[in-house]
Amino acid sequence: SSIANRFVLISLFPYTIMLNLILFGPPGSGKGTQAERLEEAYNLVHISTGVLFRSEMDEGTELGIKANEYMSRGELVPDEVTIGMLKNKMLSHADAEGFIFDGFPRTAPQAEALDQLLKEMGQQIDALIMLDVPEDEIVKRIVLRGKDSNRPDDSDPEIVRKRFQVYQNKTAPIYDYYNEKGIAFKINGTGSIDDIFQNLCDTIDSLHV
Ligand code: ADP
Fold first, then answer.
1. Which of 12, 69, 88, 190 has the fewest beta carbons under 10 Å from its own?
2. What is the pLDDT of residues 27-44, one digit of tens each?
3. Three-state SS for 3?
4. CA-to-CA distance for 209 and 127, rounded, in angstroms?
5. Residue 6 bears catalytic tag
6. In what order do the strands lie in the sheet containing 45-48?
7. Which residue's CA is minimally distant from atom 9 of ligand 1?
């Protein structure tokens, strides 16, 4: 039925076709790097909840202070806070040709909220693409990133470990949620940034959007 809906939308509103992607994978899998490139290549709006939280923290907003309590421990910010922030961000880009979600959804309620929100806009998620990176490689990358970024959650091995645990327990199952809809893809997240980008583009270009 979603294909039928899409067909009706395409035939009635040819200019409302959008591309909505979820870039998925563990902390340090390279989502941010690749999302920046995809944003430019496909003219999409990149929304990273991690970036949004950090900018709220830097500005010292109430939301930022609240988010920091959780982020500094490697825990997830509560769903209602995260979903509210994401919704505002999406509504501020009402003219977008599509979105790349990076770091969202991270829980089942977030995935359901995102689907609902897009549905209200006459949209849907077209694909979730996971960057597959082995855990030992991930740990190396995050430690390296912690050295020159000023992210405290990257510098403390205890907190990095906690973030992995949270990823395995709460976030990894999101892959199955979209896989059941037939729109989950996995690509190799190791190798050069260019090669990974090419693989991502190939996957996106093969979608029947
Ligand atoms: P990474 O993917 O490397 O862990 P992010 O910048 O995406 O980095 O996230 C950093 C932290 O921000 C997370 O550990 C979590 O505390 C918080 N956060 C980001 N996105 C979400 C989300 N969708 N739900 C809850 N918390 C989030």
1. 12
2. 999 999 999 999 999 999
3. helix
4. 10
5. no
6. 45-48, 99-102, 21-24, 127-132, 184-188
7. 50
